[in-house]
Amino acid sequence: MLELKNVSFSVTEGDETINILKNINLTINDQCMVVFTGPNGGGKTTLAKVIMGLVQPTGGQILYNSTDITHMDITARAKLGISYGFQQPPRFKGITVRKLLTLASGQATLPQDQCCQYLTRVGLCSKDYLDREVDISLSGGEVKRIEIATILARGDGLMIFDEPEAGIDLWSFARLTETFQQIHTSHSATMIIISHQERIISLADQVVVLRGGEIGHSGTAEEMLPKILQDTLTGCPVMNRGEAV
Ligand SMILES: Nc1ncnc2c1ncn2[C@@H]1O[C@H](COP(=O)(O)OP(=O)(O)OP(=O)(O)O)[C@@H](O)[C@H]1O
Questions:
Q1: For FRET with 119, which of 11, 99, 101, 203 sits at 20 to 30 Å CA-CA?
Q2: Cα→Cα distances 175→59, 98, 159, Å
Q3: Contact residues for 7 (Cβ-Cβ < 8 A; gap 6+)
Q4: CA angle at residue 124 from 121 to 128, to 5 degrees?
Q5: Taking a C-beta distance cutoff of 8 angstroms, is the pair 59, 93 a contact?
Q6: 70: closest CA among 155, 144, 9, 124?
Q7: Residue closest by Cα to atom 12 of ligand 1
């Protein structure tokens, strides 16, 4: 279980303090799929980075399976089984896709058929990619899918995906949502997915709308999706204004 208690994150610019996350309280149960959504700049990526340890909160406490991880760095959190896929993944010149998947799996060698399975689950044809370097020759969508495959290879208890749909074509997106659904129904991991996609939101156990650094609304997909869709259609976003929905 992941518990966020009054988590805040502020930065100081000159004389001004900017409150990016404001007293976030959230509990995520094991094997649940939670989607963070909401308007641009609402604080979703910052919250994901705070959970992963890429950003240190300026207030509050984070517990993972009852362990206080608030001041642990990213390596310590990774050892506890938390992984994060960047919105814009880094590239690794000189490292092949096969090597990257092997490193992610934590094994000395990863059988070819297993590498292939991870790549297939993100819609990539493995024979075209296994021996390619994860460098600038790969497209943005390819790097994104390879990074998601490395998270699958890690097989962590808590997987955080930051806009997995970004830059991914419709066909691969369909394959990817199927993969999220499989992870969810097999109860093999807890997932936090930052997404604006109706298809992904509809799979969630819990949808959390972040706006202005706060949790504006939270509920099941059945409760939240009609409200989010209504909100986007009216052109007068209730979510942005933070009124009760
Ligand atoms: N280190 C920082 N210094 C100043 N402002 C920051 C910093 N980190 C984040 N912000 C600001 O905090 C706000 C929240 O950013 P964040 O990336 O978490 O939003 P988001 O909800 O993920 O947005 P998007 O949907 O566009 O990806 C933004 O206005 C961003 O510019």
A1: 203
A2: 39, 20, 18
A3: 21, 23, 24, 25, 47, 50, 57, 59, 60, 61, 62
A4: 140
A5: no
A6: 9
A7: 20
Q: Is the CB of 41 under 6 A from ligand 1?
A: yes
The rounded Å distance from CA 70 to ligand 1 centre is 20
- Residues 185-218 have pLDDT tens digits of 988 899 999 999 999 999 999 999 999 999 999 9
Q: What is the pLDDT of residues 37-95, one digit of tens each?
A: 999 999 999 999 999 999 999 999 999 999 999 999 999 999 999 999 888 888 888 99
Domain boundaries, the chain: 2-88+158-241
Q: Is the CB of 125 within 6 Å of ligand 1?
A: no
CA–centroid distance, 42 to ligand 1, in Å, is 7
Look at residues 185, 182, 180, 153 and name the one whose alpha carbon lies nearest to residue 165: 180
pTM passes above 0.80: yes
DSSP character for 108? S
Choosing among 3.40.50.300, 3.90.220.20, 1.10.10.10, 1.10.260.40, the CATH entry for 2-88+158-241 is 3.40.50.300
Cβ of 216 less than 6 Å from ligand 1:
no
The ipTM is 0.97
Is the C-beta atom of 40 inside 6 A of ligand 1?
yes
